[in-house]
Specification:
Rossmann fold; 15 strands; 14 helices; 2 domains; single chain; 10-stranded mixed beta sheet; globular; 5-stranded antiparallel beta sheet
């Protein structure tokens, strides 16, 4: 990533007078830095990411202190950042140059490191136009934290809409083109009928014979986005179905209600897993009435005989100095996190490609929760489940109010991914 010039806040002395009264005791001219603690002393972990993001948006630069006080941030102590943190309810601590030197000296002897944050990521969410704004955990996290993002869908992906994007999140889309296999169960539901109309109209607009064909082409464009250096983050259904769409380039894996032809009975043996990002050797779900796609998902929440109970997953510990990328992705104030369902809740270990990095798993279980890998010049990260603070989320449930969960460790993992592209790339040590 290219460096940007460090930009100091203009006319700091004049700006101090505009601060809220309670902050005027801090002289930003002498303080120099702000430490944003991310341990249990933090008042709002999620909005802390927004404060950091907006600092980068203004042209500033900071540091991510990996494994120091829960993955804290070191930001310039300009008056705008101080005021922003105060208005967001985010705890910050003024630190001098000497304080920073002491912090880094302490970090040098342990499993910690300081990673420069130097570029504001251009963020986009792949989301259908009829999706409610509260129906996706990432969208809710971005809005709550105050992180700007664009929205894209099939037309933008098939055009040039991803050329100006650094980081892309996949809304819980079904890239097999089967509307999450809700078609038969919810055939009379107005929301599903509208979803089908929207998907069919878009496929026709793009010149495809059916929705599965359109989604497969969209999946291929998303893979190309990664290959040329993009950062991809996906949750729930989008993780599994993206790879299924990619691996099924030459085989029909969609039920007849989606494309007018039955699924190939030998589809599982005809998949080309070299085209996929994360998974291999999966067996496809053949029933059109079961809202599952394959045996990639370890929990099979929508089946009666295969459904697995929820437990907890544990974040892996990585070397901050040797493996900063994976370390960034697991920064948190909790290592053990309660699990939560999604149509795709988890990923079977024996379905992962060689080279996939496991970031979190349920110890002793045959599945993992959180994985990461590279493709071409870019990276992808998959996180199983739908909503970290709604473990049994069902269709029609009310939206999660993140103001009630400002310390959510599960939502922190989402926001780690948003800031990940802001970090300065460096050669890994050997």
């Amino acid at each position: 990533m290219k460096r940007r010039d460090f930009v100091r806040g203009a006319a700091m002395a004049g700006m101090v007078g505009a601060l809220p009264a309670g902050l005027r005791r801090w002289d930003v001219r002498s303080t120099g830095h702000l430490l944003v603690p991310m341990d249990d002393t933090q008042d709002d972990h999620l909005k802390a990411y927004g404060v950091t993001f907006r600092m980068l948006q203004r042209g500033g630069q900071g540091e991510w202190l990996l494994n120091h006080r829960g993955g804290s941030f070191l930001l310039p102590a300009d008056a705008t950042t101080v005021r922003d943190a105060a208005l967001a309810g985010v705890r910050v601590e003024p630190v001098s140059d000497a304080d920073v030197a002491g912090i880094k000296a302490g970090m040098a002897g342990g499993n910690a490191d300081a990673i420069p944050l130097e570029k504001v990521p251009r963020v986009a969410v792949y989301v259908p136009p009829d999706a409610p704004p509260w129906d996706d955990a990432v969208t809710m996290a971005l809005r709550y934290a105050g992180i700007d993002f664009a929205t894209v869908w099939d037309a933008e992906v098939m055009g040039d809409g991803l050329r100006s994007i650094d980081w892309l999140h996949l809304h819980h889309e079904d890239f097999t083109g089967q509307c999450s296999k809700f078609y038969l169960t919810y055939a009379n539901a107005p929301w599903l009928q509208e979803m089908v109309r929207t998907q069919v109209a878009m496929a026709q607009k793009l010149g495809f014979p059916n929705v599965p064909a359109a989604k497969r082409a969209v999946a291929q464009r998303i893979r190309a986005f990664v290959e040329r250096g993009g950062f991809l983050f996906a949750m729930c259904t989008a993780t599994e179905t993206l790879d299924l769409a990619l691996a099924s380039a030459h085989v029909d894996i969609a039920a007849s209600f989606a494309d007018g032809t039955p699924m190939d009975p030998d589809a599982s043996s005809k998949m080309d897993w070299s085209q996929a990002l994360a998974f291999q050797d999966a067996r496809l779900e053949m029933s059109p009435t079961v809202s599952e796609f394959s045996d990639i998902d370890g929990h099979q929440v929508n089946t009666f005989d295969r459904r697995q109970p929820l437990g907890s997953f544990t974040l892996f510990e990585f070397s901050a100095k040797i493996d900063p990328v994976n370390t960034m992705l697991v920064q948190d104030h909790r290592q053990v996190i309660p699990d939560f369902y999604g149509i795709t809740t988890s990923f079977r270990r024996d379905r992962l490609k060689p080279g996939v990095t496991v970031l979190a798993d349920e110890p002793g279980a045959p599945w993992v929760k959180y994985i990461h890998g590279e493709r071409g010049e870019g990276t992808w990260t998959f996180f199983g489940g739908h909503d970290p603070e709604d473990p049994e989320h069902k269709i029609g449930d009310p939206p999660t109010d993140l103001s009630l969960h400002p310390h959510s460790p599960g939502y922190r993992l989402i926001l780690n991914n948003v800031l990940f592209p802001a970090a300065k790339k460096r050669e890994l040590k050997t």
